[in-house]
Predict the structure.
Amino acid sequence: MPRAVVCLPTYNERENLEPMVRALAGVLDTSQDRVLVIDDSSPDGTGEIADRLAAQLPWVSVLHRDRKEGIGPAYVTGFKRALAEGAELVLEMDCDFSHDPADVPRLMEAAEGGDLVLGSRYVSGGGTENWGFVRRFVSRGGCLYAQVLLGVRVRDLTGGFKCFRRVALETIDLDALSAHGYAFQIEATYRVLRAELRVKEIPIRFVERRAGSSKMTGSIVTEAIWKVPLLRLRALMGRL
């Protein structure tokens, strides 16, 4: 049984996948930690690269999904696989080096005192690099929007660099997670908070991707705008 599984969702990440897996090899204990690539039928051949790496490296495995459905369903599929394999810690991170693989051990260590650890851009010591004003405004504004409407103190609700303890994923209903885009990050963290589990934030530096193109779209932003008040309403009605 693995101690930890790092879930890497991919769609057209052929330039980034192998360097990321090799970088994770340098920070994980591959005798007890695993990397799970979740590929949504990338047309650029990312899935084939993942299969090659899995054939070479016994601590790498691959989940192939039939089509692109968004980061939320991809993570839910990965979380279920990691739990079925017996993982105590389940991590999520981007494959494009926006999240520094060197920070993975810090998240795992912090999980000794928390059920969900967030790599946070918006606590002391955290931040972003190589972002323009508009992107900073949208990101920070989105976090504040969710923070105020949901009535929580977590500062980085939209971040995607996380470490869940097994108990957190077993407590929330994974099948009830309905967001497809980055609203998934808000929804997952909010459900953990509503379950009265321990959530910790540790500072990270978020940098612009090294290669490939961003997956952010207008529909993803729109989903987050309407999803947040709906989450709050359902919580107030006792239906979350």
Notes: The two ends are 32 Å apart (CA to CA).
